[in-house]
Amino acid sequence: MTPAVPALARPARLRPGDRIAVVAPSGPVPEERLRPGLDLLRDWGLEPVVAPHVLDAHPTLGHVAGADRDRARDLTEAYGDPSVAAVICARGGYGAQRMVDLVDWEAIRAAGPKPFIGYSDVTALHEAFAVRAGFATLHGPMTATEAFLTEPRTRDSLRATLFEPETVRVLGAETARPLAPGRAAGVTLGGCVSLLAADLATPHARPSARGGLLLLEDVGEEPYRLDRILTQLLRSGWLDGVAGIALGSWEECGPYEEVRAVLADRLGGLGVPVLEGLGFGHARTAPTVPLGVPAVLDADAGTLALDVPALL
Questions:
Q1: pLDDT digits over 36-67, tens only?
Q2: Number of structural domains the chain divides into
């Protein structure tokens, strides 16, 4: 039997004066959105360091931020730099899958755990940090995204997680309610459900979500496509033995009643607690959620409670 999702090595919290590297593993980054994001990091007392290829444009593919090897090198070198305390992605989009196998994961492991922050397409890297390095990561906002630039509550959640992680041990939302009742314990994992499905059968893919608390969200996936994605996860056996599921935002995925019907149909029969409306993901107001940390999901209470702070 596939072993349960393990707890991962947690990084240290940040302190004023720490250097934080900004990388672009996925889509192209507009400079006019990057600059104000860097200023916000400086307002937190951090010293942002922009990786060399963050503003690159791919020579032929407009949806990718520079060459795959350059983006992978930026991540490897930023994470491996002993003067850098954390690494945050500038934005998502598409491209992490193209460069994930070019990252020097041996060098990443040798560097030890550091906070790595992002969401959306960065899900592919969250999975790689978990499987190839054994490090916990943060599913949270990125510096050149609208949510980070314009929504104080989204920024405040990330800031508290980075500097005072003991203050954000219980995650909840006014919209949280049970899609399937119950309570379960496990280690958090997940992110964009389409990226999790795309990772199946790749050489370093996580074998399953067995024993874990699976966090799922996405953007721009119509209900029938969400049905196809979830059905693929079910047919592959990847969801066998999952302990519980927390659902975040489903921006631009169609009327929520239709999305909810798909989620209930595909996930309701697993016989595990399913909490909807927790709000993480592509929503403007989105909490930062640690991945790789033991927690308790209480669908009836509408909460995800961490056993330990996200960072040491």
A1: 999 999 999 999 999 999 999 898 999 999 99
A2: 2
Write down which residue in 146, 167, 188 finishes a domain: 167
Dmax over CA atoms of the chain, in Å, equals: 51
- The residues that are catalytic are 120, 217, 282
Cβ pair 246, 180 in contact under 8 A: no
Q: From CA 288, how far away is CA 160, in angstroms rounded?
A: 9
AA identity, residue 65: A
Residues 88 and 23 in one domain: yes
pTM of the model: 0.97
List the one residue out of 220, 224, 212, 216 whose CA is nearest residue 197. Answer: 216
Same domain, yes or no: 82 and 204 = no
H helices, E strands: number in the chain = 10, 14
In a 10 Å sphere around its CB, with 0-12 CB exposed, 13-18 middle and 19+ buried, how is residue 232 labelled?
Answer: middle
